[in-house]
Amino acid sequence: MGLRKNAENLTPAEVVDLREAFQAFYEIDDDRGFGFFAGIHGLPLPVYCEHGTALFLPWHRAYLYHVERALTAALRRARGDETVEVALPWWDWSSAVSHDRGLPTAFSSSTDGPTNPLSAGPVVLGPDDLELVRENLPGAISEGPDPITLRDPEEPDELPRDPTVQRALRATTFTDFSRILESIHNGVHGWVGGAMSAAPTAAFDPVFWAHHSMIDRLWYLWQLSPRNGDPPARLLDRALPPFPTTVRETLDISSLGYEYAAQVIG
Hints:
The protein is mostly helical and 266 residues long. The protein contains ten helices and four strands, in the order E-H-H-H-H-H-H-H-H-H-H-E-E-E.
């Protein structure tokens, strides 16, 4: 099983694997590559992502699952090694470390400068979409013919705190839990700023995946609690396009082949 870990607890070798996997992912220009998967969330049209509905958590769990598989496949092809595995780490933005440093160290441009593939992602869009982004989302992407994502983070201490997370985990119905957690999720997107602040470009920033891994992990923790409840029954067999996955198939992460490293949220 793939083990998703706290981004701050990755070993040096795991950081190298993750960075090399994303770099290999960036270089694939077909439907196995980063541009294709990042574009599923926003631009280019159609927009598939679910926000403000009861499908928010199941859709993004399916999204992470398929991206994680594609990321591993990219690294395997790049290295010629069919045994290597890559898991998406989570960014615990409620932790004391995050409230001191902000973005995860492995994803920070200050770590390796502009060569760090986790500090920005290529924005693979056509000329019309690029013009649309630059006109309507100033500061989201860099200038020039091969743009990358930009960030404009706020002060680290403005990130969500543990009591906010605990309030979500105390929700007694799936609908309430999803609604509260999505609101927290929105705030982190806004905190990062730049490309992350808008759905059309958010998934092109590599930190998107660590943020959503944290959201998925919190859903998993809530599922382990006595308050756990499934999404509305009428949605359980709903497909989550463009993925060949239903809501019911997202409910048990062990059936998807991954797990989360145990850690108390602090």
